[in-house]
Amino acid sequence: MRHRTILEYKHYRYLKLAAFVAIIAIVAYAVYSTPVGRYGGSPMGYALGTVGALLILWLMWFGIRKRQYRGSSGNIQGWLSGHVYLGTALIVIATLHSGFQVGWNVHTLAYVLMLLVIFSGFYGLYAYLRVPPLMTANLGDDTLDSIILKIADIDRDARRLAVGMPDNINRVIQDSVEGTRIGGGVLAQLTGRVRHCPTARAVTDIQAAVRQFKGDEARANKDLYALMLRKQKLVERARIDIRYQAILNFWLYLHVPLTLALLAALTAHIIAVFFYW
Amino acid sequence: MKILLVTQTRNKKGQAARSEQQIVADALRIGRGTDCKLFLPDPRVALHHAQIRHGTDGSNYIEADAGVISVDGSLNRAGKLQAGQRILIGPYEIIVLPAQPDVDLALSLELIEPLREGVEEVRSKVRAGLKNTWLSRRLFSWVAATMVLLAFIAWPVMHATSPDKSPERIENLKADITPDASWDVGPLASAHAGFGRDCGKCHQQPFVQVMNQACEDCHKTIGWHFPLRTPEAKAVHAAVFPDTRCASCHRDHKGPNGLVRTDATLCTDCHRDLKTRHAKSGLPDISDFSKDHPAFMLSILQPGRRGDAAIVRVPQEGKAAPRENSGLKFPHKTHLDKKGVRSPDGTVTLECSNCHLRDEAGIRFKPVTMKDHCQRCHSLEFEPKVTTRQVPHGKVGDVLATLNEFYAQAALADTPIDVVVEANIRRPGERLAETKRQAALTWAADKADRIAHDLFEVRVCFLCHQITPVVSDTNATTIATAVATLVAAPAADSRPASWTVAPVAVTQHWLPKSRFPHSQHETFECAKCHQVANSKTSADIAIPDLKNCRECHGGNQPSRDKARGTCETCHGFHTGSHKAGVPAIVPGGNLPKVTQAAPDATGGGAKK
Questions:
Q1: Contact B128 A180 (CB under 8 A)
Q2: B143 vs chain A: nearest CA distance in angstroms?
Q3: Within 13 Å of residue B153, how many CA atoms lie on the same side as its CB?
Q4: Which of A56, A241, A275 to mutate to test the interface with B (most CBs of B within 10 A)?
Q5: Per-block average pLDDT, block size 10, for chain A (277 residues)?
Q6: Complex ipTM, two decimals?
Q7: From edge to edge, which strands make up the β-sheet containing B297-303?
Q8: Cα–Cα distance between B36 and B13 in angstroms, integer?
Q9: Which pTM does this prediction carry?
Q10: Partner-chain contact B160 A106, CB within 8 Å
């Protein structure tokens, strides 16, 4: 059976619901107008604003719901599907609520934060749909742990071989074993690249030294080259795997704090509007 | 040389074990290389790290080769070995043992830093997962939310709830923006922008909609939708406008021109079917100017008997065309004759603007007055030989008094006046005899009477006013009769003792419930709307009718080649908003009295 994404959940149940909500909002907006135009303070504006605010709270509840493994209200797949589609419909509702009026104020701040949250969510959705197949393709039958085991084996073998080699070769092997870092800081994880990787240097140095040796040393050098090449491939795959994990998570570092900022701005928006009613 | 090497090892439990071996060599080579006599198989050791030689002096010397050696903690290239020295070569520790028999040198060797190898070593260099970096969702969330709460709730609320509400507090704020500026939902109306930094001026109570009181603090004289003079009117107003606030219609923060509604629904919501709002309403239903606007109701000033005047409301398109009864005679046709009219300056052709001058507001016209617009041609001279004197344009009594005074003065004066042809001329300083004085006064009274008759009934007043002779008048206030009584002269003939002038009431505002800015209609000739060229009587009303307006003005919906014609184009919502200086008219109620001093009213029955 073909794998179904959360977008297709229950034959697009939540797409239909979100489209229905959005169309109702658009029709209501089009039909209802006040003599002074369409704006957030009109009865229709209040209605759309209330729906939008409740929707935001429901969407935020997903962050709590997904941590409750024994939730009784539907499965987490359905919740996520609804989260995505109704979150998208929120763009329509909030835009109509604003009456397309923007300004340098807390009201537009809340609107912009909401858009940032939603679009960061779109990126997350893209990542969730796009990255896992790439991770599988990258790792194959391996896991990050099995790759680490293989690297450890290569390191041991390489060291043994290098002990009998001249110091320059031994040194680059030693550097590769001790200095090859996988992952690291935010940038290293997100890019999957490490500058001046000792393993990459070992590969080039050993290859460059191939003409120095004869007999046993030449054979050992050739073996070392093969080992370092294998190690380089493994390290690269491990780094790409970490990069994919970072991509899968990074957007949440925007999505979640922006959501909390949105909650604060939404509160300020509502207080401001009714404080100066 | 002969060397005793004691190798120390430890098993996994940390238990020590030692083994001894004797090495014979010219020099003791130390290194990772298999050709080294002291073979140290560790990648951290150089291939040929160092060597130890036996000197000719019997001492032993160590010398670094390709590696680095540390002797008693200091890095050395070479040195003389002494018992007890501690030499580090890579991870190995070599201790020089005390001299022993049969050997040149005794050394103890131990691997003190075993090579770290295996999975844990690799894993220690792997850092995966953003949660293991400085990124923190929790921290970011707290910081972002707290900043928003402080900047957009705490700061504005502290400002708004400050007990100091004085305008100076706002004015003295140095910053360009006030703490609550972020709450502003949109630009204020231009009239309110001046105090826009002081939100509390209108938003006087938190969480309470802007109260009418806030508006009335400045707009003290604004009228209601209709006058609330009677309890009934107040009751109707309360029923028709329940819970209606100023701000129900006047929504601010909608841009410079957003405060005043100009949409038709403001009016037609109720007026298209007014009975549903107010069953006793006598007003016609109107939904659109282009469709069902009734005929204009003219407000015509009606002169009363006692010098007062009242406004009557007459539909313009009734069974009979309404007429004006201003008390004046004025044929526009005569005055607008293309051939011209006689004037002191010769024949002139008059235009509308010779008499009808726009008021300062550019909306209507200044009243036409006898003094400014008529008297230059219609002079009030009475004595052909004295062109410097005119009778006053005022009360009949004043006219008669002027005449009597003039002729009595002429008759009695010391200095003869050439007009006094029938009196005896005295010498200068001669005292007038009583009989002569009586005769002079009799003559003067008679002359004044005749001239008055001539003015009122034949030449001057009669031309514009409706004059009625008063034959038997006992009114002692008339100076002619007073003088006549005084001199006891019998009435010469049956000429009337006085006259009455019909009260004058010139309607100044025919459509006081609308506004019509003439300045905005300047592109048209006056005659486009006011057809007076053939009007022979002042009773004709030249106010354009509904059809005339509809030639250019459409209705609620935009239409081709027509200017907009919503209710607000001509009407205002609040009483007083559309008719400056004209008293309010109560529909169906008693007509208000308009004080108007009839005979000395500013003359001219000209139509607008």
A1: no
A2: 8
A3: 18
A4: A275
A5: 72 89 93 85 92 94 79 76 93 94 93 96 93 92 87 88 86 90 90 89 90 85 90 93 93 94 96 92
A6: 0.88
A7: B297-303, B308-315, B593-595
A8: 30
A9: 0.74
A10: no
